[in-house]
Amino acid sequence: MPRETRDFHAKTYRAPVNDQWDFLLSTMWNQMIHLVIMVDGRLDEERLVSAMCTALATEPVLRCRFIGSPVPCWEELPAVPPGTFFSVVHADDAKKALRHALFHRVDPCSGPQARLTLIRGREDVLVLSVNHAASDACGVKGTAALIARAYRGSAPDSAPDLPPSPACDRSYAPVLSSFTQQEQEMAREACKESPAEWGVPCSPGPCRAPCYLWRRIDRGLFGRVRSFSRSERMTINDLLLSAFFQSVSMEIPHSDGRDYPVLTSLDLRRLVPGVPTPAVANLSVAFEVRLPADSTLPPYSHARETHHAMEERKRLLAGIGAAVRVQERFEGGFSGVRQSLEDLARASESEGYPRNPFFSNTGIIPAECTDFGGMEASCAFLVPPLELSPGFSVAASTFEDTLTLASGFYRDSISPFVVRRILCNIERTLLDITR
Q1: Are the beta carbons of 162 and 54 closer than 8 angstroms?
Q2: Side-by-side strand order, sheet with 32-40
Q3: pTM for the model
């Protein structure tokens, strides 16, 4: 619940450890999550500003700044002028302007935590950027739906009817309370931390040249993947994770015939659908799964092995274990975790230690995220945070039967040619799996 600070009379909200964790990561690299929407039509700037104001009023944490000491919390800003959360870019080259918009970074200590960029080109491109310190990908989609709904409601013949978001616990507690202490301990053991064993080769030194690449998967191929997953009783995530692993295996030096770790993500909201959890929160966790790097294993067989490995991780509640482990990190306090991450960042720059590759399936982008009333969205996809080398990640998102793979990285550390190869090979591997 909000409380009044003695000096500034600003509302503050407790920052749970999941927010603290993503805040600390945001001090090391660009932790912005972007939703890109391409619209066939012209959006009204004033209505967009009004809709963004409504979204910020509906989700208080987005109009806050992060206070790291003495007790980490979110503090509402005394004023949020439009220039801090909205901008318009007129561009002959919309693609170039889009890449520049993706480079924009919100300082979580300044806020607000969300920004809307309208790119005026041959068609309008809307970019919603949210700091991961405040929310995961689910919250970005939820915020986009709020903005679109408020935009429709601000039309002359309409009236906005957005109630304030209900006060929900943003921590892991509501989810963890659904599991017994014994189940949580089993999950914790399933998520034992292990050292990184491999990683996409990169050049050592500071990372200063951010880059984003994405690739859309043909609708026909994605339709095949979806049908194949149903007939083979494997999830789409199983197939995507297998294709990602097989593709990075082509780039990372390794010993053939061994199992190697890869990180993947899980939205904890899906584990307990009956428990009230907020959309705008950090309730996605990453956990490790070991998969075979075996050149003699056919693509379909690897997908089947991936399915079995994921089923075992689910049985052991690996996602719950990851949440428990994050909480344990902060038992020694916020400053202790900050120091350990700073040490890790220095080691990364000076030693180039490996970091296991990471794949995240952010799921379907609902139609309500792109419904601005009378205009069709030709494309929408999510862009993940910039991964600090030697880390490497790819995120998948789906909109209207089109799958998009996106990666954020530093081109002075990892070559764009390597990243393009990986994205292309994921597509080829999906084709091979479903043959």
Answers
A1: yes
A2: 86-90, 114-120, 124-131, 32-40, 376-383
A3: 0.93
